[in-house]
Structures are given as C-alpha cells and as structure tokens.
From TrEMBL, chains A, B, C, D:
Active site as annotated: D142
Binding site for Mg(2+): D118
Protein name: ATP-dependent 6-phosphofructokinase
UniProt EC number: 2.7.1.11
The keyword Transcription regulation appears for this protein: no
SUPFAM superfamilies with a match to the protein in the record: Phosphofructokinase
Complex and partners: Homodimer or homotetramer.
Keyword Nucleotide-binding among UniProt keywords: yes
Organism (species): Algoriphagus aquaeductus
Principal cellular location given in the protein's record: cytoplasm
Taxonomic lineage: Bacteria, Pseudomonadati, Bacteroidota, Cytophagia, Cytophagales
Pathway: Carbohydrate degradation; glycolysis; D-glyceraldehyde 3-phosphate and glycerone phosphate from D-glucose: step 3/4
Residues annotated as binding ATP: G11, K76, G77, G117, D118, G119, S120
Subcellular location field: Cytoplasm
Length: 363, 363, 363, 363
C-alpha cells in the first residue's frame, strides 16, 4: 500500500476542502493508495506524537461545501526557518527540510500533495529538491499567481465583497452618503478591481495605483454638484496616497499604519480634512471574504485541482504545480510558478475597461 | 380627488420601498385617491419649490425588492426643532409643525402616512395634534419598539449579520482564532442576540448587560484549554465593560469612544491587554446591515404595513401606528406607541435560552 | 446518570439539527444527564440491534447551519399501526406503543424528546399516556399548527421560494410571459401566500380558495391589454379549480392527479385551453424548499425550542409541546396542540392584505 | 452627433443589463455619441411607429444588478425570414435585412451593437454584409460558443442550480432518497456538468453522453448496498438514453417527448420500471436559471463586454464579436465565431475530472 500525505498551509481560502475531497475521491479509485492528512500544515507530521488522520470517502463526504479546512492550518513554524531550541535555552533558526523529508520517508509516505500559497510552495520546492516526490496545489485569495489564470477562493471573495457592496449602495443613494468599503489585498488589487466593476463603484483604490487625494475630492464634489449625491468607494487594504498629496494627515496615517479599518479609516479622515462635508461611512469586510461556502465556480476549480494533483502523483510527475491556464487544467514546474507574481497592470485591459465604466482610480 | 402624502424618515431600513408600494397598490384600488411622495422625509414638502412626486402603480412596480427608499431620506431638519435663520443672521430653533400642517393643507393634502422611527413618529403625533390626519408606520432596524412584536428590516439585518458570522466561523476554526464581529445596536442588543443564537457564538456582548472582562478572559482561555481553539464573539456597537473591570485601557476606551470599529477595536485591545495570546481578528459590518433587498419575512411585514396604513386612512382612523402584535396586523395610538422602548431583558426568555446554548454574556 | 432519547420524525425541515443541538447544549450544562439519538425516528430504538448514538457537544458542533437531520428520518413504520409479521407469514397491524415504552425503560431512558409533525406528536401523546415522560417539539414546513405562531423551517421555505420567484420575474417581464411557480402546500397555502406577497405576484392559488378559471383568464388578459405584458403566478401544490369552471380539461386534470408539476402542469394546460396565447413557463420547486441551511429566524426558533424542550424535561413537565405564541416561547399540552389545524382564512387579515396589494386568488 | 442602436435578442440571460450599461457608460465619455435602445430586439426599430429609447447615464444607473433586460427581448420575427403579409392575405417569408439596413440609416444610426446568441449574430453578420457597421456581443446561457472561453450568465445559471442542489442533498441524505434535478441544456451539457462537480453529484446525464439505464441502476443499487442510501442526479433537459437500453418505457419516453419535467419525468419512471424501490423526487429548475441578479463574475464579463463593444465602434472595427479568450478580452470576426459550436467533450479534461470525483455519466 502506497501512502500520500496532504497538508493545507497559510491563510484561509474557500475551496480548500473541495481540493482535499478531490484528492481522496480520485485516490479511492486506486486499489493501492492511502491518503493521510497532516493537521495544521506540516506541523501534524513534525510533532511528536504526530497528528495525522487517514482520509477516505466517508471522511470527505460533503466537505466541498464547507469553508475553512478540515485539516486546520497555520502561519507559524516554517520548516525552512524553524526556531529550534538550543541547549542553552535560546532559539536558533534552522532549515529542517532534510529532516522533514527523512521523517516523511520513515513514516512511509511515498508522496506529498501540498496545498498552499507562495510560502507553502517554496517549502514544496525545497522538499522536492531534497528528494521528496511532491505535487503542489496553488492557493491565493488574491489571485496574484501569474502562472494560473484563476485559483479557487478568489471569485468567492469577490462575490462576498460584491454582495456587501450592493447592500451599501442602497443606503448611500438614500442618504446621499460617501460609502467606503475596505476589501482584502495588501499588494494586489484584484479583489477591489473586480468588486468595483461588479458593484458599479465610482472610485476604486488599489496598491498598484497610488491615488491623488485632490483627484478624489474633485470626483466626489463633482458627483454632488451634478445632483447625484452619493459616492461608493472600494479600497484595497494596501492602497495608499501618492507622495505629497496628503498634507493634513501626513505622518499620521501612513500605509498600513492603522490596522483596523486600516487605510480605510485614514481615507475617511483624509477626505474630511480635504473638505468633504457629506456623511462618510466605512465598512471593513475583514475575514468574511476568506470564509464560508465557496461559490460554484470555485468548487469546480478546487475539485478539479484535487483530482489533477492526485493524477500527477499517479503518473509520477513531481515538482509540479496544478494550474488553470487558458481555460485548461494543466501543470507547471513549481520553481517556475513561484518566481513571478501577478499584480494589476495599471495600463491593462481590466483597468482600462473599469475607466470606461466611469470608475476613477484617483490617478 | 383626495390626496395623501407619503414620507420616509430617519436611517435606512430594508423594506421601506415595500411599504410605499403597499400604500400605492391599495390606494390605486380606490377611484378617488392620489398618492404623492415627499423627497427626503418631509423636506420635499417644506422646501420651495417643493420636491414631490406622484406615485402610481408604474412608479412602484418592482420596488419591493430594492433596499433603501425611492423617496430618499434624511436625519436632518426636524420640523419640531427647526433651525430658522433670523434677520440678524443667527439661527433660532422653532417649532414649524403648525406651519407644516398649514402647508400640507394649502397643497391640498387630505392625509399623511409617515414612515419612520421614534423621531419621525413624534413628528407624526405633533402633526396629528395640530389637526392633520396622520397615520404612522414604524421603522426600526433595532426592533426596539415595544408596541410591535416585529418590524420590517430587523430580520434582514440579522440575516446579513448571521451570513457574515457563518463565514467567519470557518476561518476561526481553521486558524484557531478569536473572531470579533461588531453589529448594530447602540442601546438595544436584539441584532447581536439573534445573530449570536443563529450563528452559534460563544460570546455575545450587548448594551443591556455590561460585561466583566475577567469573565470573558476565563471563557476564552477555557475554550483553548479544552482543545477547542477558537472563539466567536458578536458584539453590539453599544456594548461596554462593567465599571472597574478594565484597568489598563480604562479611560482610553470608553463607550462609543472609538467610532470605526468602536468598542470592537477596544475589545480586541482589552483582550490582548488581559493576556489573550491567540490571534484576534475584527469585522465591522456597518451599513451592510441596513441595506440591500429585504428577506421575504420583512417584505411581507412591510407590504402588509403599507396596505394597512392606507386602509386606516380610508377608514378615517388617524393618530394611529400600524403594528404586528401577537401575529396579527393591527394599530395603536401613536402616542402610546412611542412612549415605551423595548430593550433586551437580561432575565428574559431569549437571554436565558442563549445561556442554555452555552453563550456567555460576560456577566 | 439519567438518559434522554431524541428522535426526528416525518418530512425534512430546515432547523431540525438546530433543535438537536439546543437540546444537547442545554443538557451538557447538567452533570447528570446524557443525551442519545435514535436513527430514523424511533426505528433506531425499535430495531435489534438498536441504532442509537450518544450525542455530546462535539457531535453537535456546527450542525445548526446544516439542513436535514443528523439522525435521519423516515415516514415508515408508525409504531401505533405497526405491520407485524405473523407466524403464517402474513402481516397484521398492531399497536406497539406499550412495547415501545417498555423498551425505552429497559434501555434505561428516563425521558424522550420527540421532534416531528402531527403523526409524530400523536405517537408522543400515546407514549405519554402509556407512562413514558415525553416532551414534543413541533415540526411543520407548512406552518399549519394552530397552537404555535411560527415553527422553524417555514420561513426558510418561503425565502427559498421567494428567491426563485425573484429570478422568474425578470424573465417574465423581459419575455412577456406567464410564469407559474409551484410551491409546497397540499392542504395549507401559507407558503404560497407569503411567497406571493413577498414576491409581488399577480395571482396566488391556494387549497383554501378554489379558483375560477374564467376569473384567472380575465385577469391575465387584462394585464396584457393594459400593456403590462407579463403575469407571475404562485400556486400551492394542493390548489384546485372550482367545480364546473373547467370544461375542456375536466376529468383529465383533477386535484393531485398529475404529480410532477401537479396542478401546475394542468393549470398551464387549462390556461391554454381557455385561450391564453402568451408563452407559459412552469417551475416546480419541489424539495429545494425543505432542504438547505435554515435562515437566521428559523435557527433562532429551532435552537430555543431545543433548549426549552430540555428545560421541560429538567422541570419534569411532560406531555407538553414547545411553542412560540405571541412572541413568547412556552408550552401547551400535546393533546391540545394536535387537535386543531391552521389553514389560511380566506377572509383573514393576510388574504385581505394580499388583495390590497392587487393579488388575485381567482375567486 | 453620431448615433448607435443597441438591441438584445433571444432568451433571457443574467448580465444583459450590465452590457447595456457598459456601452452607455463608455459612450458617455465621448462628446459626439448618442446611444439608443430598440425594444424587443430589432422589432422596436422595424415597427411603425418605432419603439426606441435614448439611453444615458441616468437610464442605466444601477441596472447592472438586475436580471432580464430593460429593452425587453423576443424570439419572434427574425428579419432574415420575416413573415410578410401579401396582398392576397397570405404570408410569405422574405429577407428584410436590406430594408432593415436602409431603415437604420434613414433613422440616422451610424452603428449597431447587437447582443444575442447564434440567431442574433447571424442577423448581425447579414446586416454587416449589407453595409451596416455592426459589433456583436455574444449571449448564451449554455456556454456553447467555441470562440469565447466564458460568457456572462453561464456561471450565474450554474450557481443557481448548485444552490438548489445543495438544498436537495440534505433531504436526500436524511430520507435516503434518489433526487433528480433537471437543469437547462438541450444540446450542451455544460450547466449540468459544472453543477454536478460543484454539488458533488453521484450521477450526471448530458446530451453529449447517452446513458445506459442498466449502468445507472447498478450505480444506484451499489450506493444503497454499501450503506450510503441516497443518490443525487443532475440531468440536462436534453439528455437521453442509449438506443435499446430502455425496454419497458421505450417508445413512450423519447428525447424531449415530455416537456414539463422532460426527460426528468421519464428518468424517474425509467428507474422505477427498472426496479429501483427507493423514493424518487424530481425538481425542475426551469427559468429560475435564466433570471435574477448576475453573480459578480458575470457582471464583470458583461460590463467589460459592453465597454469593449463600444470601443470597437469608436475604433471603427465592425463585423466583430467581443470575446473573452485565454483570460483576455478581445474580438473575432462574427462570421468565424458563429461557425462552430462548443459541446462537452466526453473525453475531455472536465469529464475525466468528474469521473475522478466518482461522478457517473451512465456510460
């Protein structure tokens, strides 16, 4: 009997359970493969005693509709830089990848499917280079991996944000307000951009396009002057103002400086400082975007990723990452996949289309 | 032809449009009644030129599914305390109710249906006492009117909050986090209480029950110690700690002192100050709770309220507020309705049931 | 240690799991009570070997958001009329209630909480009369129990139907069609009535008001003549035409005669036979109305019902059914509760309000 | 001032209004373009008097969230084969394209954007060949156009079907039933395939893979024998059995022979005839799949299609169809686009992945 270990690492993302189910469903069609899960990324394997669970058709029944991951996850304890207690009581950072590969083999595992983002796939690659047969499944709520057109979770986050936005629009219009909604995206503004187009925002602020406060103020005042007395703004948590365009608040509210409500809070203040007299209200969606049942689109991607990952294992193709490219499910070397990062192109098709819809980016 | 004026006042609330549609639909079955709407509460009538709109079956077609109000609304310019510019340029607060009733009559209105909360209904009563035939329709997202068992909008707010809560729970469980979700409710904790029961929260903090920080900390640590490493907290924006139970933060974070994230932000800080080491994440639902399409339950209440209000007008029963009491649609004198206020009873059935479900109120 | 047995009987209903969780959560606060579940109503107890499961906080974690029942259910094998195999191979119907009560006691059960509809509560009453301490929890998707204002599941069914209706309306309007949507309700038209009001239907057909086909035809033609070329119809599966009003189809399409699409199919044919030339499209919601996650309102009712049922057990108050009456959670004798049935009153407030909204019942 | 005419043709599809809004928003950024809409496809232009409407920012405000089309649509009166009344009272089919192009020019239109499916785009091409500057926007709920990877509406239909499926699964499991859900798809099984993967169906029947009844029966009985007593089936309305595999029902239930419940009804009967004893329940989603607010993904595609179409007009690139190919928005000649049709490949990636998930296609 051959054994495969599955782990989920990094932040939450709708669809993780559907990937796990896909792997197990496909594996159960083979006579000679067993699937095991490691709790909390690879920690379940690294600890003594181990915390592993055998996964079969019954364990995964119905889990594709659930958010989160039945295996739990963690952001701590990267085995490439593991804090190891020294005899003198201090901690030293060590590379535990070789030890990890030995442990996997000593526990009888023939392969690993590692589901996770950049950090997790760097571990996948390191394990692969250290001799472990590994297949990676990409996970990024931000849709910022250049090797795959879409990943599971992203469209669910956009849907959740868009639904909330729809709810805010009616209040904005009835009360003639400026509504600011902060969505995820520290470095990539995809969620904000898609939400702004889907929801019909007037303003969309993303990390890729620093905004000019004067431009925003002009746009907002213009709306009120032309008799349409409300403005809806989507802002990515990583958005920030151009150098020198904020005077009153400068120094006080830098990028990421206020975590709850983050830039959102500061934007509200910035607008007030700059003379916007309309009522301004903020909403911070926070982790609602990362949780909950995946939309159908994401369940399909995640389920197929799971099946594909298992088929790569069966075919003996390791060091590969499952992707969806040009509407086809295929794979690329992990090494290649994690070397480039996909942010919004300020001059690309989608931003231009958004501008065609009348959305201002404050530039 | 007889004319009726409809106005919507105060904060946004899902179902306002369904009330308007109900009034118009019922009125259109009479040969001799016309319905007019005043934009932005009664301001549309008070301004010169007036901003009024004739409402017929076509104007209201399909609006029952929309959030907000097609008439717009405002919180400003209460006619009972109207800021009137004096010859010397200063402002003086005057009671413009008599003037308002004159104006209504001079514009040919035979009756008014005023849809709104406490403040709006005080105006309804004042107009009624000044000789204007008025019928009131209650509106409170907080469900805090003692004369009616339910009003439209409340259950929609609870549903929106509960849906968001469901999304947070999966992340909390996967990441072993403390999740804090702030919902509406400055004086009444109904939305928080219903959401906590619906969502299966571990902790629910409401204005009616000041919390003891030590009790919260004990409960949270207990959860982690028994191996269920996550806690979900619903907090009403008006919740606050008991006197003397917060030391480090005292003075810094009073009730309502921090508006964005409000008490929520301070609660997160309070918990950290008190030694909670787990990751804590906050979500502030804000106005998403007040907007969007009403759930079916609220559409039914609102639509029937509209029909009932028009039937009171037809029957010549004025000074009345439409209510839903003991599962029946009826009416009470406005005067009686606005004299009492319905907050959560800390010893009542629902709080006891919530405790039976294991929900802690921090008391 | 005292033991209680929980069972769920009859048709599916969103909220069953929340009731189970409520019972277990409340019981877990007592030192001396264990909760057990019987699979497939009481069959799990009656079979040899038994199929019972011990329920604790972990078993019920998170189940309140799930549709269906973790205990399964069945419509078969009523113990009051149990088909018992005789020595000669034939079956005879016997009353196994006394045997059932003996078995409960011999298995060490001190009390039973029986969740179910009319049939299940008749069994509850019979067991109670035979000496078993029983508490009942009412379950009816149709909201047809007169002793309780609302039960869990009903509003979820209405919401599901209303959401589907909203989707149909846009197509009806764009294509100038007659849309017929069949909802549940063989004897009571509550789901149809609430859905019609919530959705803004033009026509609502329910079992309590037999329709006159000529009236429907006139209404439909009227809509097309006045330039609003579409009609949306909600029909309860038990609706039927008045005697003598259908000529062409009479005899062919009686009440309940065509199960898939039921009366709906026949209504479409009836309208065509009667000269309606517009495109007619049908949707049969079927069991989508009985399944899925309960809306927040129903989760609250169900959770509180569970806690209340356990508290009745603790207080030693048996032979009682938990109810929600006049906005308060209380209890009535089961005997009293199951003796009357609550259908839509053709002259009641809601039907009159619906007519005020322009909804025709074909009468 | 230059004028453009917009029309929407064929069946309903979530996203049509977002396309219209996209066109108008983009055009409003030009000084010299006016956008007009023709009611009910091109009929509004062809009739006398015309039924046209000028579209500006206010007309299209907020329509992107609405299902249907504000312009209405129709399946009747194809101008390529127009039934023209002859002097003797009979009708003759004539090609009115030349007349239509003349009429467009005489009414001052400089370009046409035609939103619609195969039939509509054939008209687009004919008008283009007759000298009219035309840009096409593809519309197909079935996702069966080979030139574009995705179109708006498809994912919304899948989401609606998947949501309904989720609701059925819980009842199936609790009651040990066979649930059959019929979705759209007469010739292409994409909606059924995506829904089956998203929902976790056991069986998926599509037009591209005729099913063998014996295979289905074996699969269903296998599920019950292994103790998992429920089966969920998704069936496209155009699915049908292989020749010779249905004996009892043969001749009675051919493909498309029973329209309401279509094959679904017959499948239920076929299974009963073939010895399945479990309860079988059917749901026919019908037009709920074509209506309602589009999901965010579809709103983005539709909005960008609208902007792109207008930009093609501005760039003078006619005879083109807007598409989304390889994750990029671009265009192809209409002629090329409508010449090939995209059905599910029985040996393609998605069907293989579905089989990997344990979904049987009855082959």
């Amino acid at each position: 009997m051959k054994k495969i270990l599955v782990a989920t690492g990094g932040g939450d993302c709708p669809g993780l359970n559907a990937v796990i189910r896909g792997i197990v469903k496909r594996a159960s069609q083979e006579k000679d493969w067993e699937v095991w899960g490691s709790f909390e990324a690879l920690n379940g394997l690294m600890e003594e005693p181990t915390r592993l669970i055998k996964l079969d058709d019954k364990t995964v029944a119905g889990i594709h509709v659930l958010g989160g991951t039945i295996l739990g996850t963690t952001n701590k304890g990267n085995p490439m830089n593991y804090p190891e207690r020294q005899p003198d009581g201090t901690f030293k950072t060590v590379n535990r990848i070789p030890w990890l590969v030995d442990r996997l083999k000593s526990k009888g595992f023939d392969a690993v499917i590692n589901i996770g983002g950049d950090g997790s796939q760097a571990i996948s690659q390191a394990m692969f280079e250290a001799g472990m047969p590994v297949v990676g499944v990409p996970k990024t709520i931000d849709n910022d991996l250049s090797s795959t057109d879409f990943t599971f979770g992203f469209q669910t986050a956009v849907q959740t944000a868009s639904d909330s936005f729809d709810r805010l629009v009616t209040t904005a219009a009835s009360h003639h307000r400026v509504m600011i909604m902060e969505v995820m995206g520290r470095n990539a503004g995809w969620i904000a951009l898609y939400t702004a187009i889907s929801g019909g925002a007037e303003i969309c602020l993303i990390p890729e396009i620093p905004y000019d406060l004067d431009v925003l103020v002009e746009r907002i005042k213009g709306r009120y002057n032309e008799g349409r007395g409300f403005v809806n703004i989507v802002i990515a948590e990583g958005a920030y103002a151009k150098e020198g365009t904020i005077t009153a608040s400068k120094g006080e509210f830098g990028r990421h400086s206020v975590r709850l409500g983050g830039v959102c809070f500061s934007l509200s203040q910035q607008l007030k400082d700059a003379g916007i007299e309309a009522d301004i209200r903020e909403t911070v969606l926070g982790h609602t975007q990362r949780g909950g049942t995946p939309i159908a689109f994401d369940r399909v991607i995640a389920s197929v990723f799971g099946v594909k990952a298992m088929e790569l294992v069966l075919a003996g193709k390791f060091g590969q990452l499952v992707i969806l490219k040009n509407n086809d499910y295929t794979a690329v070397p992990i090494q290649e996949a994690i070397s480039s990062y996909n942010v919004v192109d300020p001059h690309g098709t989608l931003v231009q289309a958004a501008k065609g819809l009348g959305i201002s980016f404050g530039d």
